[in-house]
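A.,

Following up on our hallway conversation. Structure tokens first:
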């Protein structure tokens, strides 16, 4: 009669464990307590959602400006067996695919377009590339997100100067328009007063300071004497 020795292991929630005997997969263990052969080896796999942040990538735009862009990938393991057996480093291919997609994305836009969009760069192409690479190793890429876009200081300074110049020019143009409108209104008022002298006299009276005396001469113009009481 053979003697069998067993170990007990506990698989935590959100994980699974692969039991290997003599290098061959025996069972996929779900969360809970399990009894395994003492000679078996166990590989635990995290099945919950995770985030992989790519190191800041220096990429060239279509106008040859170097940007530093940080991308994060949200993923989870969908096939634990493929994740363990298909590749020595299952996330390396996902990482590489995201890098290449990011470079292709940056090469299709200018630095001005990137600054206008801010961090709202469309990362769908990056997610699609990473998703395709991850499918081969049991990784499901849920989404890709552009976290940071760092533009060279010289470009930022030039953009600020351009924006300032545009704002200054717009302010001067608006001031010129307002002055032109005011002059046009004055010219129209002058024509109206020339055509109607009585209006000019009435306006003159209305603008006299409080306490002034107004002397009207019949058949002539009004004489105004400033004599505050």
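Then the amino acids I'd put at each of the 229 positions:
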């Amino acid at each position: 009669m053979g003697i069998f020795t067993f170990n007990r292991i506990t698989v935590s929630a959100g994980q699974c464990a692969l039991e290997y005997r003599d290098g061959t997969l025996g069972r996929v263990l779900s969360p809970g307590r399990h009894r395994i052969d003492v000679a078996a080896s166990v590989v635990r796999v995290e099945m919950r959602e995770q985030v992989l942040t790519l190191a800041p990538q220096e990429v060239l735009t279509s106008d040859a400006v170097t940007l530093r862009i940080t991308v994060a990938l949200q993923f989870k393991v969908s096939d634990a067996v493929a994740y363990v057996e298909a590749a020595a480093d299952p996330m390396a291919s996902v990482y590489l695919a995201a890098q290449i997609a990011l470079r292709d994305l940056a090469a299709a836009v200018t630095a001005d377009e990137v600054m206008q969009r801010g961090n709202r760069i469309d990362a769908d192409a990056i997610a699609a590339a990473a998703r395709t690479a991850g499918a081969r190793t049991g990784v499901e890429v849920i989404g890709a997100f552009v976290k940071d876009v760092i533009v060279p200081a010289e470009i930022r300074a030039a953009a600020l100067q351009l924006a300032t110049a545009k704002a200054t020019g717009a302010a001067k143009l608006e001031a010129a328009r307002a002055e032109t409108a005011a002059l046009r209104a004055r010219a129209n008022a002058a024509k109206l007063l020339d055509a109607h002298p009585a209006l000019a006299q009435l306006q003159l009276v209305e603008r006299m300071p409080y306490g002034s005396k107004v002397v009207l001469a019949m058949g002539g113009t009004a004489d105004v004497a400033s004599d505050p009481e």
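The mean pLDDT is 82. Curious whether your intuition agrees with the design.

B.
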